[in-house]
Amino acid sequence: MSSIFGFMGKVLIEDDLIDAMLPWNRFYGGDGEGTYKNGNIALGCCVQELSDKHRQEYPILHEGHSCAVIDAVIYNRDELLGRCDCDYDASDAELLFKLVMQLGFSCLAEVNGDFAGAVYDENKKSLTLFRDHMGIRPLFYYEDSNTVAFSTDLRGLFAHPDVRGKVDDEWIYRTVAGFDADTLDNTPYENVKCVTPAHFIEISFGKNSVEHKASRYWKLGQKKIKLSSKEEYCARLRTLVEDSVRRRLGAVSGIVGAELSGGLDSGVIDILISRFGREAVFFSWSLDPNELDMAEGDERKVIADICKQENITCNYMHLESDCTEKAAKSMERVGLSIPNDGSMDLRFVLPASSNTYTLLHGSFYVREHGAKVMFTGHGGDEGISHRSSSYEMFHHHEYYRYFRHLWSVTRKKHRVVRTLKKGVRGIVTSNREKKKEYTNWYASPELLNIDFAYGYLDKKQRSMQFDYDPVAYIENGGSRNRLENMALLGAYCGVRYIAPFMDFRVMDFAVSIPRYLYINGGTKRYIYREAFKDIMPKSLYELNIKEVTSFSNLKNEVKANWFEEYTRRKREIIDSLDRDYWKKYLDFAAIDKLYSSGEPTDEEYTKEMRWLKALLKCALAQNVINRAKMVNV
């Protein structure tokens, strides 16, 4: 779980600037680190070894007139070794460096792995940044006319004194108004971007500006795969998923961790891990059944069936689970100082994208039990198992299959007329509903300064494409947030997340499967269920709705001091906002009423929670700029 960081300046750089970026990147690797400075370039890398077979001796890589830092776990080493001149025992980072040096950056299309890298060419005075097909590994960069900086950890950029931080106006509008603020490459900040997945970017300095050339080496859904029957699609999907899991198990040494949610995606991956004979620690975010009774549709019932079938044990969260102190010690260990009190997200300077803090519980647990990786089912919903809608068939021009599906679920009396009416009505309704601008649950446009918001009212926002166009959903950044959360929060625990469903070969095949095979009568995710039917317990195969977190039975257990804690949290968020900075964007008259409001009714509480979530994201974006430079002395 290496991290990489560095910068290139227009003039000679000071020696200690690279060291300022180091602490934020130390989270990602504890098995070695190194920095390199030469003229106007500085590079750094913190290494964590995941395999005992191919260890990385040197964090900074050199060949000819080029030097590099690379974060990589490669899953098709043997194939790549046949494509370049490289020692068999070379680390994954060294192999990838040799490959791009000998074949060029376009050869990244052939690499099955999770990777990000930076290569500096001394002759051309250029820096090339690159990232894996699906964006598993994060890589952020900043550029202006004098400085280019990059970092695995977003906060590492703002630790550099020459990186100027300003929250982006459009990001503020979209976040508070409730439109999805994440694309594949944007961030909350001006001049700061993500390297777009499946791209490499060559950056150099011109006379008066930075020159930037981005090239794409792969595109999801371009490779059309046509087979002759449902059985062939099932068999190919099964083969690819099994191969993906097997390759990833082979790339890491020792015990592995695995999320076991009781859902179709993690369930299949965990069953495969068990059947491939790998020692694993299984963990669920659900509460221990000994502490909380089962709810109707409880996922723990499915988990119990999986565990019984595979003779494995699942470990659960506990009612009093709290990872705050463990995370604080992680920060102190890498050289970062934090306040003694306050909420975790502000104390730990978490980016505005951070939202799945339960990841810490599983990550810490499996790390404490010897695992450096955590297998996850992320990517299933997005493309592999895919939660389809009937409209998806029409959207993809499968018109016959669309009406045939409706025929199969329509009552026999006046069936032809009913089917036609239902089909036309579905098309009209779906075109209206699915393609309208999508707003999330914390949309709070009433908190925006009206003069600021007015400038964006005519700007068209995106629709939610999740259940009818998986390629567009992914290409628009739909899977990005969870990937960044896994990388960041896993790093606090020394754990790297492994996502077999995000293997670009698996995803590419899945999005090429005819859409009608994902829905059969009332059964959604049909082709996926059929592909793995013989290894699923009946409860998993028939699963439609689950109680995701198993907290249903806690709904009446309200802490006596809840309002006191709620008020503290509310005021902490509002007090953290710099009013001079935010008055251009936010309506502080409304915010002040929220600040001093009394105990809310249920309806008021729902509204206040929306407002606080939107304000928290603004506070987190500001907090990163203000506090990323903090280092223990």
Q: What Rg do the Cα atoms give? A: 25 Å
Task: Give the N-to-C terminal Cα separation.
Answer: 26 Å
Helix content: 25-40%
- Count of discrete domains: 3
For the biggest β-sheet, the strand order reads: 2-3-1-9-8-10
Q: What would you give as the CATH superfamily of the largest domain?
A: HUPs
- CATH fold name of the largest domain, please? Rossmann fold
Overall SS class: alpha+beta
Number of helices: 25
Q: Strand count, sense and closure of the main sheet?
A: 6 strands, antiparallel
What is the multimeric organization of the chains shown? single chain
CATH architecture of the largest domain: 3-Layer(aba) Sandwich
Q: Which CATH class of the largest domain?
A: Alpha Beta
What does this structure look like?
The structure is a single chain. The protein is of the alpha+beta class and 633 residues long. The chain has 3 domains: 3-216, 4-Layer Sandwich (Glutamine Phosphoribosylpyrophosphate, subunit 1, domain 1), CATH 3.60.20; 230-384 and 477-540, Rossmann fold (3-Layer(aba) Sandwich), CATH 3.40.50.620; 390-430, no CATH class. The protein contains 25 helices and 19 strands. The strands form 4 sheets. The chain has a 6-stranded antiparallel sheet. It has a 6-stranded antiparallel sheet with strand order 4-5-6-7-11-12, with helices on one face. Helix 8 links the parallel strand 14 (280-287) and strand 15 (314-317). The two termini are 26 Å apart.
